[in-house]
Amino acid sequence: MNIYDMTYNDLIMYFKNINLKPYRAKQLYDWLYVKRIKSFREITNIKKEIIEKLEIDFYFDNISIVKKESDVLVNKYLLKLSDENTIEAVLMEHDYGNSLCISSEVGCNMGCKFCESGRIKKIRDVTAGEMIEEILAIENDLKIRISHIVIMGIGEPFDNYKNICNFIEIVNNSNGINIGSRHITISTCGIVPKIYEFSDFPYQVNLAISLHAPNDNLRNTLMPINKVYNLKKLMDAIDYYISKTNRRVTFEYIMLDKINDTHECAIELSKLLKGKNCYVNLIPYNETNNLGYKRSSKENILKFYDTLKKNNIAVTIRREFGGKISAACGQLKTMKEDA
Ligand code: SAH
């Protein structure tokens, strides 16, 4: 088993089964995530017999950097997993810290019409350990510490639920990487049963919903998931989530020229979200060569923003990163495959 797949509690259980005390888990997490060893042989405070047992039971999986593109304040990576599959991760330097956007699946089955990742069908889940390695590889490459995680790269995190929960548990553990749960954001296209399940998740992680349309007719044309879980079902689930967690939800709304950026859409969106504990993040669309959608003009984005504001909806416009380096979800991977 990949050692990075082990939660802290898994390790306590593992050591317990071989009659070792729980503090061994703390020691091992320290070697893995503070000292960053690459082999069990580097450990100096655990007996040789135990090291040998660890070597039999676990391996150090190693993801590698295949390609890196850099721009001001952004580094985009194509990473190779141990079975040769590739995924993407994007590091953005904000004034509040370094935020890493990680992939949760190899490919994606959600098929959103505007998204490059949807062109690559899902091949498999990314494991919790591999998500941890995305962090370790990039911290090592840039010699930095990551303070924020957004699960907004390739894949639908709620289509890989168990691994995502384990990942959050591992990354959040104070003996290890220790990224605060409030610094972690999960973005979903709206897998309703998992939103209900996530309402009971014991970590205070941020939830973002890819909304992109204020009514079913339009959302059906952009996001096939809406035909399974329509807006009524989605909003009911979100209301439940907010009532259970008392947390504010983010709605992501990509601005697509003449598709979802009209005044009528802004009014309809305001009505849909009225009174909810939420805010809207307007995202200037990153155009891709393959999908034919255009980005809304600056003027239309600002008008849309104003309409929401006037209707008392909290709203921000996402700062742009990496337009020059094709940093939109899935673009680096599909460019490599088209080339
Ligand atoms: N499957 C999850 C997370 C991955 S997509 C989800 O749907 O939320 C992360 C975000 O990037 C989503 O809001 C998605 O709609 C958006 N996105 C996809 N392609 C984009 C593009 N070309 N430009 C801007 N945002 C894009």
Question: What features would you describe in this structure?
Answer:
This protein is an alpha/beta fold and 339 residues long. The chain is 37% helix and 19% strand. The protein has twelve helices and twelve strands. The protein has helices at 8-17, 23-34, 48-57, 128-142, 161-172, 192-198, 216-222, 225-228, 231-245, 263-273, 298-310, 331-338; strands at 64-71, 74-80, 86-94, 97-102, 105-106, 124-125, 148-151, 184-188, 206-210, 249-255, 278-284, 315-317. The strands form two sheets. The protein has a ten-stranded mixed β-sheet, covered by helices on one side. Strands 5-6 form a two-stranded antiparallel ribbon. A hairpin with a 2-residue loop joins strand 3 and strand 4 (97-102). It is elongated, with a radius of gyration of 21 Å. The chain starts with 7 loop residues before the first helix and ends with a helix. 39% of the residues are buried. It binds S-adenosyl-L-homocysteine. Residues 110, 112, 114-115, 152, 156, 187-189, 210, 252, 254, 283, 285-286, 288, 328-329 line the site of S-adenosyl-L-homocysteine (SAH).
